[in-house]
Structure formats: structure tokens, C-alpha cells
């Protein structure tokens, strides 16, 4: 309620409420603990929901099928076994959505050969597929796919708290949690895709680079490319940053070249249709079959893909707005003298150009494709800012 002759805060000051809050919840130690507890509750609640209500999406079906290819080469057998496993966990409503909700899904449900032809775009995630197969004897393929989103989500949440604590910025968890949720943390946990796992590996690599443990970071960055090949954009952005900011270039150069060569070998062995065919499928027009699909390059279709990606990104996704907010926050922190020298600014630069590079290389608009960059930028800016709500309350009371 607004006081007649002043603001709500003025009224609170006169009645002693702010002084009471300062004495009871205004201590740094207590607010640090409350922030950590808040962040932990958010992560645990999202993970619990993902276990109870996982998102049975099309990618989940494709990843399960790809993991089964080592024992079912016949399209009909592969198709039948995949849907048998999915059907044991999914509800009738979820199965209908997966099988008949649109013409593409219906065709994949009705045509085993077309279904198998799609898997060439999934085989390239060799480390993710290998992890699914490793967990299969313990929990089964479908449960393994769900756990490979939930467990990395919990680990990422725990690692963020560790990072905040090391930087004496635990109260920043009050800000970081909603930023990560807006950046797609919740959906990535419920969706059965490798994005949360590659995000965890990338966050740890960025932290190691911040601590100047370049060799360990490069090992993780190299591994991340085999979880999602497009994470090579992060490696390339870091390589450019190393050149621009005078880091040791050789470790990142070797990592980039090795990851690029390894990715090309994996793509060839897995029968990947190539960048342009994949671009056309994902950004221009979806194809029922990828068998022998080699469309001629077209500047018109190329431009259509980028226009579509930009429009959908701005209209239906959050990452462009969050990126603008983070860049503005970076500028304000620099103006206030809160940014630090060394690698902090360089890494934010790398993540910023990596975000733009990710879209430039393949204009898929979904938030989850940019989470590594947006989430890590949020993390680093919060640790630079180190918000102190206890100090703010005490200063206002004084």
C-alpha cells in the first residue's frame, strides 16, 4: 500500500520494517544460503518434473533408433523395435503426437525405410549414442535417454552453485536461476536431446579456461564436439579469442583442427548428407526421406533459411532478447568499473561472437541451440556483478 506523502519504502522506513528486515534476513551469510537454496530448489523441481513428465519428442525416437542400429540393420526390424521401446513408456496421447500429429511424423511411422534414412543426421553424435548404449544394460535405452538429460541438468546446477561460491557471488543465484530458465534450462531438462550434456561439459571447460587450465579445458572441448558436432563453433570462437587476446593459441588450435577432422571422419562414416542437404532439411523444407537427397545449392533457398530462422528466433524464442540484455549488462558493468581484466572479458567476448557464429553457421532458431553461450554468459556476468542484497537493504535503511 502506498503512503499518502511518500513511497512504500519511505513508509517502511518510518515504521521500522526495513530495520527489522536488515536485522533478520539482511546478513550476507543468511542471504547466501537462501540464494543457494532457491537455486537448488529450482534445479531439483525441474529435474523431478522431467522424470515424471519427460518430453517424448521426435528427436528422442531418432536417438533411440540410432542406438539400436548396431543390432538391427533391417529398416523394418529397426522401426518395430524402436517403437516397441517407446510404446512401453509413452502414453497413448504421447504416441499419437509422435506418430500422427503432422504429415512428417505420420510418414515416419508408416515407412520404415524413410525412418531409417533420417538417422544419418543423428549418427554424428557418436559420444552421445555410445553413452546411451553404455547405460542401456542398467536402465534400458528409453530411461537412459531421459537420464542423460536429467542427470547433467542436476550436475550443471550443482556446478553453477560451486562456481558462484568460488567467486563469492552466491546471492547472484537469485538472478541466475530465472536467466537460465528463460534461456531454456527447464525445457532442455525435460527434452530427450544431448544439449544438456554438452552444456555441462562446455560450462566446465569455460570455467577451466577462466582458471587458465587450458589443456584440461581443451580435452573437454574436444569431447563436446562428439556429443554435438556444432559445438565446434564454441571451439572456433575461443580460438579467435585466444588470438585476439594473446592467450596460448596452440592448445586451442590443435583442439579445433583435431575436432574438425574427427567430425568430418564421423560424418563420412555415418553417411551424413552434408551441410547443404542438412541445412535445406532443417531450415528450408523438411524431407520425408534423406536417401540420396542432394539438392542443388540455391541462393534464394539459402536466404529463405536465414530469414525464417531470424523471424522465428525473434518471435518465438528468448535468446536474442537475452543476448541483448547481457551485452547491455556487460557494458554497464564496464562503465561502473565492475568488469575485471584477464580472461573474464575475453571469455564473454568469445561467448558473444560464438552466439552470433552459431546462428550464422546454421540458423536454427531454438533456444536450446544457444544455451551453452547464453547460459555461460549469464554465469560470468553474475560473478562479475556479485549482487549483494544484504548491502542494498542495509544502505537503504541507513
TrEMBL record:
The record's keywords, sorted A to Z, are:
Membrane, Transmembrane, Transmembrane helix
**Origin: domain of life:** Bacteria
Q: What parts of the sequence cross the membrane?
A: 34-52, 141-165, 185-210, 217-243, 249-267, 310-333, 345-362, 368-385
Statement: the UniProt record of this protein carries the keyword Transmembrane? yes
Q: What is this protein called?
A: Glycosyltransferase RgtA/B/C/D-like domain-containing protein
Q: Which organism is it from?
A: Aminobacter aganoensis
Amino acid at each position: 500500500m502506498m503512503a499518502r506523502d511518500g513511497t512504500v519504502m519511505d513508509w517502511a522506513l518510518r515504521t521500522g520494517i526495513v530495520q527489522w528486515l536488515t536485522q533478520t534476513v539482511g546478513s550476507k551469510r543468511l542471504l547466501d544460503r537462501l540464494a543457494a537454496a532457491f537455486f537448488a530448489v529450482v534445479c531439483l523441481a525441474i529435474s523431478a518434473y522431467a522424470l515424471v513428465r519427460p518430453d517424448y519428442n521426435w528427436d528422442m525416437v531418432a536417438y533411440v533408433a540410432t542406438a539400436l542400429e548396431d543390432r538391427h540393420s533391417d529398416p523394418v526390424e529397426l522401426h518395430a523395435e524402436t517403437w516397441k521401446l517407446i510404446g512401453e513408456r509413452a502414453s497413448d496421447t504421447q504416441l499419437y503426437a509422435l506418430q500422427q500429429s503432422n504429415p512428417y511424423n505420420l510418414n515416419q511411422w508408416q515407412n520404415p525405410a524413410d525412418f531409417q534414412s533420417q538417422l544419418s543426421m543423428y549418427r554424428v553424435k557418436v559420444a552421445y549414442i555410445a553413452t546411451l548404449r553404455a547405460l542401456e544394460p542398467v536402465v534400458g535405452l528409453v530411461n537412459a535417454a531421459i537420464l542423460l538429460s536429467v542427470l547433467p541438468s542436476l550436475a550443471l546446477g550443482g556446478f553453477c552453485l560451486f562456481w558462484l561460491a568460488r567467486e563469492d557471488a552466491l546471492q547472484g543465484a537469485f538472478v541466475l536461476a530465472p536467466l537460465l530458465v528463460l534461456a531454456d534450462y527447464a525445457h532442455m531438462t525435460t527434452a530427450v536431446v544431448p544439449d544438456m550434456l554438452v552444456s555441462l561439459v562446455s560450462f566446465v571447460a569455460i570455467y577451466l579456461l577462466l582458471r587458465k587450465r587450458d589443456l584440461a579445458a581443451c580435452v573437454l572441448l574436444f569431447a563436446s564436439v562428439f556429443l554435438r558436432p556444432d559445438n565446434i563453433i564454441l571451439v572456433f570462437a575461443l580460438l579467435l579469442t585466444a588470438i585476439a587476446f594473446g592467450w596460448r593459441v596452440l592448445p586451442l588450435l590443435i583442439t579445433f583442427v583435431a575436432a574438425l577432422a574427427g567430425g568430418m571422419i564421423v560424418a563420412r562414416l555415418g553417411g551424413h548428407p552434408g551441410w547443404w542437404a542438412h541445412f535445406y532439411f532443417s531450415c528450408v523444407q523438411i524431407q520425408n526421406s534423406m536417401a540420396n537427397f542432394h539438392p542443388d545449392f540455391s541462393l534464394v533457398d539459402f536466404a529463405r533459411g536465414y530469414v525464417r530462422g531470424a523471424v522465428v528466433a525473434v518471435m518465438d524464442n528468448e535468446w536474442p532478447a537475452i543476448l541483448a540484455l547481457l551485452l547491455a549488462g556487460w557494458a554497464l558493468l564496464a562503465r561502473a568499473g565492475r568488469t575485471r581484466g584477464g580472461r573474464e572479458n575475453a571469455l564473454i567476448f568469445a561467448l558473444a561472437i560464438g552466439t552470433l557464429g552459431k546462428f550464422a553457421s546454421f540458423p536454427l532458431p531454438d533456444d536450446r541451440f544457444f544455451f551453452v553461450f547464453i547460459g555461460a554468459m549469464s554465469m560470468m556476468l553474475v560473478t562479475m556483478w556479485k549482487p549483494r542484497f544484504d548491502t542494498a537493504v542495509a544502505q537503504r535503511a541507513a
